[in-house]
Amino acid sequence: MVKKYYDVIVVGGGASGIAAAIGAAKTGASCLLLERYGCLGGQATTANVASYCGFFTHEEKPRQIVRGVGEEVLEELYSLGYYDGYKISPVGNAVVALDQEATKFALDEVISRYPVDVLLHCRMIHTETDTESGHVRQILCVDDQDSYEFSAGAFVDATGDGNLAYLAGAQMRYGDGKGKGQASTRVMIMDRVPSEVQLKPDLLEKVFIQAKKDGYRNLTKESGIVFRINEDTVCAILPSIWIPDLRAETLTQCEMNTRKQAQEYLDVFHRYVPGMEHCRLITTGAQLGIRDTRHVVGEKILTGEQVIHAMKPEDSIARGAWPCEMHVDVNKIAKYIFVDHDDYYGIPMGCLKAKNWKNLWCAGRTISADPVAFASVRVMGCGFATGQAAGVAAALYQNGQGSIGSVQQELIRQGALI
Ligand SMILES: Cc1cc2nc3c(=O)[nH]c(=O)nc-3n(C[C@H](O)[C@H](O)[C@H](O)COP(=O)(O)OP(=O)(O)OC[C@H]3O[C@@H](n4cnc5c(N)ncnc54)[C@H](O)[C@@H]3O)c2cc1C
Asked: Residue 223's pLDDT is what?
């Protein structure tokens, strides 16, 4: 058994976890970043999610509202030749198009500049807590050779699914808390799609409705986002499913079900869309793209009202601007609720702190938000912002220097927008 102490431990190496670890390190904390897969990036690199959303407002001239660690990642992608400004998505949002391999490498390069111990292929499986005092004391992790007991002054749950907070026994909500939530979707990348092929949502919707009538039994979304990544390669966000719990048995069914859907969509593209007769499914990712599972109940809960009305509270530690994008019906394209005046909103610090816990912070998809607010904050641009804030807060609070003001000051010093 390997044992080690850190000031801050971050579990989960997606956008939010990377930003949390760097935020904590820049604040002067010793920091460990743990990831169960073999690369950083979370769903951007393991589930084919092909763009960073949430860096910009929805305005005609989009304003960048996330900087700090997120900006450093964009600069790294730029220096590698994979980013030269935002692109406008099929629904009019400013997004950062991603190349999966370049993103993996860029994230390795960025994190390597900081004194953060990174462990890939290391999975957290257990926590030890002192519930009376409200502290997580240590986590138990495994790789294929050893087991590890890592203790820390503070912990950041950046697992997307709230795995750390759940194991610690924190109060959680699953989906919308009423047995439903946002569908998860398998992202298909296909090549050999000639540039003249039209990928308009209304044309494709007719195709999928007809295919369902013709007897294709496994299709779900009748309309989804299908966009071109380069001259002959296309990303299709179609095969969908609701994940009711996170048991291996359930996830196995969901993975296999959506892979079956992907094969059927491919067949439909071959047979119904002129020009796509020879398109090829290159990858559906190492895992199904997961949108909505567990959420930590925090000291504060970000509400849809605050998001939609672009509220900017005094205790804001991060900004968000992505419209509330709700995938509530597995068969339909997402519904959007836009932020008033296409402005940005502020995220209160209490949304990152688990209720009744002194040293348990959360970041990215796990933060405390109601279902409508979650539909906006879940994107990765916002994940970089809440992650950096959670890392800074974890670092400052564990050494007794924590206050909303000190966290805000440190974030500004680190170049973040709050
Ligand atoms: C189909 C689909 C399309 C989307 N499109 C976009 C888009 O275009 N742009 C955008 O910005 N967002 C998009 N999103 C949303 C976005 O991908 C997620 O909300 C985002 O990845 C959340 O970031 P995160 O850092 O919170 O978590 P994740 O990216 O989920 O990262 C969490 C990490 O924690 C690790 N982890 C979990 N448990 C453990 C454990 N026990 N031990 C060790 N490691 C662990 C996981 O392996 C993972 O790498 C999409 C989502 C889906 C499903």
From this structure: 85
Q: What CA–CA distances, in Å, run from 390 to 9, 168, 211?
A: 11, 18, 46
Strand partners, 361: 156, 353
Q: What are the φ/ψ torsions at residue 156 (nearest 5 degrees)? A: -120, 125
2-177+293-413: in CATH 3.50.50.60:
yes
How sure is the predictor about 155, in pLDDT bands with cuts at 50, 70 and 90?
very high
Nearest to 393 by CA among 294, 306, 313, 315: 315
Kindly give, in sequence order, each residue whose CB lies less than 8 Å from that of residue 214, ignoring residues fewer than 6 positions away: none
Q: Determine the Cα–Cα distance for residues 3 and 398; give it in Å rounded to an integer.
A: 19
Nearest CA to ligand 1 atom 33: 12
Residue nearest atom 37 of ligand 1, based on CA coordinates: 159
Task: Give the pLDDT band of residue 245 (cuts 50, 70, 90).
Answer: very high
Q: Which residue has the tokens 């047979």?
A: 271
| CA atoms within 13 A of residue 229's CA, in its CB half-sphere | 21
Q: Which residues contact 368 (CB under 8 A, 6 or more apart)?
A: 295, 296, 297, 298, 299, 300, 301, 302, 350, 351, 352, 354, 355, 362
Task: Tell me the whole-structure pTM to 2 decimals.
Answer: 0.97
Stretch (H or E) spanning 202: helix 201-213
pLDDT for the residue 89 = 85
Cβ–Cβ < 8 Å for 13, 120 = yes
Looking at residue 400, its pLDDT comes to 82
Residues of the chain with CATH 3.50.50.60: 2-177+293-413
Residue 250 has φ and ψ, to the nearest 5°, of -65, -45
Residues with CB under 6 A from ligand 1: 11-17, 34-37, 42-43, 49, 51-54, 123-124, 158-160, 163, 184-185, 187, 237, 289-291, 364-365, 378-381, 383
Q: Whose CA is nearest to atom 29 of ligand 1?
A: 42
- Pairing between β-strand 123-130 and β-strand 172-174 as defined by DSSP bridges: unpaired
pLDDT value at position 401?
Answer: 87
For the chain, give the percent of residues with pLDDT over 70: 100
Sign of CA dihedral 108, 113, 116, 117: positive
Q: Return the structure tokens found at 266.
A: 């491919």
What distance in angstroms lies between residue 145's CA and the mean position of ligand 1's atoms? 26
**DSSP letter at 287?**
S
